[in-house]
Design brief:
3-stranded antiparallel sheet; about 30% strand; alpha+beta; about 290 residues
């Protein structure tokens, strides 16, 4: 069954949520429980303005009955959203794929305090691609390549590249020297959510993350590293480099939280993406035009 297309509203895409099992009477009650930081009055106002939709794209009434598994679309709103001046470059656009070269500090999708100042919203507006969807994640702090699906009909074929690890992702990072390590090396560990909630950490147990690490340039105080993630855990590269004793330069979260560090760009770049196109069998290679300052 094909999902209904949810319209852009003021150029902003709708977020989708499948309601979990619960004892709520209405969709409103479920949303208030799912997002406790958003006042009930705010949700009531969104319903009144047609900013909460059913999976069919139709506006829901404020007393719409709750049903487990019901898909809901809603439009995020942020008061006084900060403006991000840096712009992304579109390196490729065809009927199926869009490749963007993202600057440091620009979120990929609406979340937290960002809605309009995100890569997804900007691309939808600029290129009139209402079905655009990112095929993988890239931290707001990380610069470089992000691959988007343009066409829902071919999206599954490209998602399989990531799920089946048939895409080569190469990153570059600047970090302190590790003279006592033999390179290339592989870091395998178990990464789980830590404290605060937005940080990850290594813990005991079966490994669920793997990164290949090599050195491409050796300076006196800073080395340039080539990072090849095999898995895609949240903050994996940042956690692995910090655990080795070479935290990526300007990382405000690893190995420890540092105040006022986000003003400096994290020296991590998603440098290239390479894969065999599942539609025509042709090799594809995309490379970032950015370079980390040495």
């Amino acid at each position: 069954m094909t999902r209904a297309r949810l319209p852009l509203l003021d150029g902003v895409p709708a977020s989708r949520l499948q309601l979990p099992p619960g004892e709520w009477s209405t969709v409103l009650d479920a949303l208030c429980a799912r997002f406790p930081a958003i006042p009930r009055a705010t949700w009531i106002d969104r319903f009144a303005r047609g900013r909460v939709l059913g999976g069919d794209g139709m506006a829901l009434a404020v007393d719409a009955p709750y049903r487990a598994g019901l898909e809901v679309g809603y439009y995020r709103e942020v008061a006084q959203e900060p403006v991000i001046e840096a712009e992304a470059q579109v390196l490729h656009l065809d009927a199926h794929l869009l490749v963007a070269d993202k600057p440091h500090g620009l979120p990929v999708v609406p979340s937290g305090g960002f809605v309009e100042q995100t890569l997804l919203t900007r691309l939808m507006r600029a290129h009139d691609v209402p079905d655009l969807a990112p095929l993988h994640r890239l931290d707001r702090a990380t610069a470089g390549l992000v691959l988007f699906s343009v066409n829902p009909a071919s999206r599954g074929a490209y998602q399989a590249l990531f799920r089946e690890r048939r895409i080569d992702k190469q990153y570059e990072a600047l970090a302190p020297p590790l003279p006592d390590r033999g390179f290339p090396l592989r870091r395998c560990s178990r990464i789980e959510r830590g404290t605060p909630f937005f940080r990850m950490h290594e813990t005991a147990g079966e490994a669920n993350s793997e990164t290949g690490i090599d050195v491409v340039e050796r300076g006196v105080d800073v080395w340039r590293y080539a990072l090849s993630p095999v898995t895609g855990r949240k903050h994996q590269l940042r956690v692995h480099m910090a655990a080795l004793g070479a935290p990526i330069l300007n990382d405000p979260w690893y190995p420890t939280l540092r105040e006022h560090a986000e003003a400096l760009p994290l020296q991590l770049l998603a440098r290239s993406l390479a894969f065999v196109d599942p539609l025509d069998g042709m090799p594809r290679l995309f490379e970032s035009r950015q370079r980390l300052a040495s």
